[in-house]
Amino acid sequence: MAVTASTDPYSALGVSYTASRKPDPRIAARIRAALGDARTIVNVGAGAGSYEPAGLRVVAVEPSAVMVGQRPPGAAPAIRALAERLPFPDDAFDAALAVLTVHHWRSAAAGLAQLRRVARRQVVLTWDPQVTSRFWLVRDYLPQIAPHERGLACLDAVRAELGRGGARVVVQPVPVPGDCADGFLGAYWRRPDAYLRAQARAGISSLSLLDQRAVRAAMRRLGADLASGRWYRRHGALLAMSELDLGYRLVIAGND
User: Fold this and answer.
1) Domain 10-254 in this protein, CATH class
2) I need a labelling partner for 215 at 20 to 30 A (CA). Which of 41, 149, 157, 199 fits?
């Protein structure tokens, strides 16, 4: 199936994606370590190219023209294709990488099977919704996120699919730095005022895909709590922390 503006969720969501979504070097280091000795990488759902390791042979796969158009000069070559139909022969790469993307795929099972087919190692960054549901932004302001995420292909689905056939699967926590450069949902846990900015929210799919009336109402409550000091009374201890486990996980699998 071709990807068109009507079927591409990033035709609107991704227009200003790179304004708030930049690779964080500490998360990048964890991803690079997870790739091990791999020299050839296919980055599936590659978006604008965040976390593609320098110094390795990388091929990007990204269906959205909007996202491909935001890849910087010198980025790895990008092929417009779907995760479920990777246009490569079996065992074409040392490792397949997928960063916060599997939940957007039309069929996570089919896409993850493709990762297993084309690479001997798979490295997937995803999250555990059970942990994320306890995050103050979700619990106190936008609880609608929790039931929505329980229906997405996140940690349990990724771990199960990549472990098929007896492949060894390792799950590693990825704590979020307090000054995280990559503006995903949990990035601003220590900078709550950032969520009040529409541009920051625009790069977070779990917020952009919600009813925006509910999001605006939640942001009004958050703004009021920040102004009154209520947020600081409830969560001020977070300001002394340098990183926090919000459920983000690296799933590393393969038979190597």
Assistant:
1) alpha beta
2) 157
